[in-house]
Amino acid sequence: MSSRPYDAVRYPTYPRIETHPDRLAAVATLAGMAPAPVTRCRVLELGCGDGGNLIPMAYFLPGSSFAGVDLAAGAIGQGRELVRALKLRNIELREADLRDLDRNAGAFDYILAHGLYSWIPPDVRDRLMALCAELLAPQGVAYLSYNTWPGRHERHILREVLLYHLREARAPQRRLREARRLLRAIGTPAALEMAASPDDLLFHDDLAPVSDPIWFRDFAAHAEAHGLQYLGDVGPGPRSSGDEQYDDFLRMRAFRQSLICRAGIALEQPAAALMPRFLFSIASPEMAQDAVTAALRDAYPLPLPFDELAPYAGADLAERLFALYQAGVVDVHVFDFPCEETATAHPRATRLARAQAKGSRFVTGVRHHLVELNESDRELILKLDGRRRRASERVGWFAQMGLLDA
Predict the structure, then answer these.
(1) Hey, what CATH class is 5-149+213-262 in?
(2) pTM for the full model?
């Protein structure tokens, strides 16, 4: 196989809302920290790929600075092309090995490492944790995602079967074809789900040379060994309020998106009394269940401040919102995303959306969420340069999705 597997099988990256500084800062604030303002922070992404996650942040947060590092030269080259097209001056992407990074990079308020921890050798994994310890600002937050036991057991068994079956196959496309053929023959729900995975996920997640799930307790101990501590998790689903390891047992959790910070920080338990400090959005419009969540659904995907929700719940609003947050129904925010919520007579799509729509049906909204366009929407986005009069009611939906310039 290629020594650069991410060049052999492209692994496109997308905006991951869980990695946005707003999400990290909100969890940190709930725990009593004083994280850097979203509008004035330094962000480092390790394993940034083609910048699909980092570049939209740099576009919508011009007062912050961003650095991305990845081993895949082709992906970095593609990302740099988009950076040049957007004329961004607050982001740098470079091809490098994280083992070569050191303190000279300076301190970062937020460090992102999605899809690295479980997929790199133990020595590199240890260097990743050490980098977080070396490069995090005093109130900094790092995001690391990883596969976990016990939920990963069935898929991991299938991976071991595939690696044995493919021990003589070297060409990436042959490995993918033969893997899918065997998975369909096995025919279990997990095998069929794996067989249906797109090439990038099957090749880089399941057939990667290294793919090591970990117990949460061992992840927390690894962080502690480097002078760091577990802060909380982000992502969909309920928030744990007890023993994190037992929570994984009960849910058979297979994947975590964990935040860590410096061990010397005294963390507090999140509480309902803190809710008036935040803005709120519904995790999914389908989750609306009462007047509060219906109001959030109507504003989706943008968040609403606490005061605007007061008419829908009365005196118990803080308790209600905290319960919804704990249940994973709503997300909390510290940043009021700037957005043109109504279309003007001469609407203009963001330069980012127009650049992305040239080659994809997926574009990024202002809240760092992925928006899928049909072909007519994609063609319309390309025309919205501010010089044409509004010609379609669809433009109003673009405004709601945060695709128009504010």
Answers:
(1) alpha beta
(2) 0.95
